[in-house]
UniProtKB/TrEMBL annotation:
Active site: 239 (nucleophile), 276 (proton donor)
Family affiliation: Belongs to the glycosyl hydrolase 13 family.
Presence of the UniProt keyword Signal in the record: no
Gene: treZ
Protein name per the record: Malto-oligosyltrehalose trehalohydrolase
Organism ancestry: Bacteria, Bacillati, Actinomycetota, Actinomycetes, Pseudonocardiales
Species annotation: Amycolatopsis vastitatis
Signal peptide interval: none
């Protein structure tokens, strides 16, 4: 068996295979090679006595500090030969964290709940990162060995079983990957070569444009291609791409998109790249032939922020700008609220306008909640903890009737009462205390007492964050689940609701933005966020969906506060 590793500055490299140590031979481009027989292996650089795991490890059964294990992708017995993939347009995503989605917290346990997603009408299931990180419990964003699947979830075979089972049920799989930084424990890449270049808000960033960066870029791209090719994943969600510092003429994202498109052609199924970005720059999703990077979609935090402020009235921090009366209308019409305009949170102008005549809405993911917007609150409280059911229903109706690709966070569909809090489980006591202290200090600046912020290292924090599936059939939860099922079904059955042409969107609003009417072809969605009832003449011929005490009579909608109607009009014929 051949073992290889990139270590361009090393004077000598040895590989320890099943406790036997073998000298490696220097090859071209800083690569070292050796032939040996065995399963468990690690590398010794120069005169080091402690062996290090393989930067390109495929399996870490004993954690990120220990030896790697040989893993053959060809040995898994796939059953998804008939799977042809799913395109993103027309899709509905469901974001989940494997460790807290079920009581078992494994891929196999999650498989048992896939029927719920199918029944809900989900098309794409998005998993938070599953790469290896230090400890047993965590969000996954502190990964350090990107090609190895977290063993407590079920390891590489467990993930493949999950993907295979999802495909059997018609669900595409989206995987969240983190290329902008590495976690604080087990990040040994810089021992092997010039992988790192500076720090960002979360940890060491990658060297994408300096000396030696060709191999570093290859490291990223090969990892992405492996998820598609070897694990049969259908899409990748690229975490915080604004932190990928790259001054080359061809940005890493553009290079990645080109290679993914080539692999898509070879595999004959759609492969999708979805960016998370703070840049408000449509260049990310602009096709390469028009000078963009050619990614397929990106998250739309501006839509979330506008909806959040409308539903909750919160205006602190980055929500301040979205208190503008026209904020929700602007993001529905224009995608970005900050589009070359002043951002008070950043204290500068920010963003660039989207050409809504040429860029379709399906390239932007909309959501009421996601892991960040819940988990990065001090207590991890969901909207359902503070917002009345009727108001939440109005937000959901706007989301699913918008021209954007909707995404649901696990449990949102039944107004889950469980919080989703920040947690980790670093074995190093000093690191654990640093994370604990840093979390409390961060929220103390916003007025939270130390006792109010959950201890991220306490196993009870993880336990509180697990979904309670018994809630699904309980009053107050069952009605919300029925609403989500109906909205998703209508979006699938009525093409007008999934129409991604943003420029064709018509929107009527009250001067104070207390109500709005969304025109979707011959359908009208009327929503009342105001404190009093309102009557809106819609020319309705039939009511497709109502919420609360809303009624339709004589073509007009009678809307008490926090209610909505979705109606068909004569124009539909």
């Amino acid at each position: 068996m051949k073992f290889s590793v990139w270590a361009p500055a090393a004077r000598k490299v040895r590989v320890s295979v099943d406790a036997g140590v073998h000298e490696m031979t220097a090859g071209d481009g800083g690569w070292w090679h050796a032939e040996a027989e065995g399963v468990n292996y690690a590398f010794l650089l120069d005169d080091d006595e402690k062996p290090l795991p393989d930067p390109r490890s495929r399996h870490q059964p004993h954690g990120v500090h220990e030896e790697s294990r040989v893993y053959d992708h060809g040995e898994f017995a796939w059953t998804d030969d008939a799977w042809t993939g799913r395109q993103l347009p027309g899709g509905v995503l469901y974001e989940l964290h494997v460790g807290t989605f079920t009581e078992g917290g494994t891929f196999d346990a999650a498989i048992e709940r896939l029927g719920h997603l199918v029944d809900l009408g989900i098309t794409h299931v998005e998993l938070l990162p599953v790469n290896s990180f230090d400890g047993t419990a965590g969000w996954g964003y502190d990964g350090v060995l990107w090609g190895a699947v977290h063993e407590p979830y079920g390891g590489p075979d467990g993930f493949k079983r999950f993907v295979d089972a999802a495909h059997a049920r018609g669900l595409a799989v989206v995987l969240d990957v983190v290329y902008n930084h590495l976690g604080p424990s087990g990040a040994y890449l810089d021992r092997f070569g010039p992988y790192f270049a500076g720090q960002n808000d979360w940890g060491p960033g990658l060297n994408l444009d300096g000396p030696g960066s060709d191999e570093v870029r290859r490291y990223v791209i090969d990892n992405a291609l492996s998820w598609f090719r070897d694990f049969h994943v259908d899409a990748l969600r690229l975490d915080a791409v604004h932190a990928l510092l790259d001054r080359r003429a061809v940005h890493l994202l553009e290079q990645l998109a080109g290679e993914v498109d080539a692999l898509s052609a070879a595999l004959n199924r759609p492969l999708t790249l979805i960016a998370e970005s703070d840049l408000n720059d449509p260049k990310l999703v602009t096709p390469r032939e028009r000078g963009g990077y050619g990614l397929h979609a990106q998250w739309s935090d501006d839509l979330h922020h506008a909806l959040h402020v409308k539903l909750t009235g919160e205006t602190s921090g980055y929500y301040a700008d979205f208190a503008a009366p026209d904020a929700l209308e602007r993001v529905l019409r224009e995608v970005f609220f900050h589009a070359g305009t002043w951002s008070s949170f950043r204290e500068r102008t920010h963003g660039r306008p989207v050409d809504t005549r040429t860029v379709p809405g399906h390239r932007f993911l909309g959501y009421l909640q996601n892991h960040d917007q819940i988990g990065n609150r001090a207590t991890g409280d969901r909207l359902s903890a503070t917002v009345a059911p009727g108001r939440l229903a109005c937000g959901a109706a706007l989301l699913f009737c918008s021209p954007y690709t909707p995404m649901v966070f696990m449990g949102e569909e039944w107004a889950a009462s469980t919080p989703w809090q920040f947690f980790a489980s670093f074995p190093d006591p000093e690191l654990a205390e640093a994370v604990r202290t840093g979390r409390r200090r961060e929220f103390a600046r916003h007025g939270w007492g130390e006792a109010d912020v959950p201890d991220p290292m306490d196993p009870a924090t993880v336990d509180r964050s697990r979904l309670d599936w018994a809630e699904v059939e309980r009053p107050g939860h069952r009605e919300v689940l029925d609403l989500y099922r109906t909205l998703i079904r209508l979006r699938r059955e009525r093409p007008e609701l999934a129409d991604p042409r943003i420029a064709d969107l018509r929107l009527d609003t009250a001067p104070d933005a207390s109500w709005l009417v969304l025109h979707r072809g011959g359908l009208r969605l009327a929503v009342n966020f105001g404190a009093g009832p309102v009557t809106l003449p819609l020319g309705a011929t039939a009511a497709l969906l109502t919420w609360g005490e809303a009624t339709v009579d004589g073509g007009a909608a009678q809307l008490p506060p926090d209610t909505f109607v979705l109606v068909e009009t004569a124009a539909a014929g």
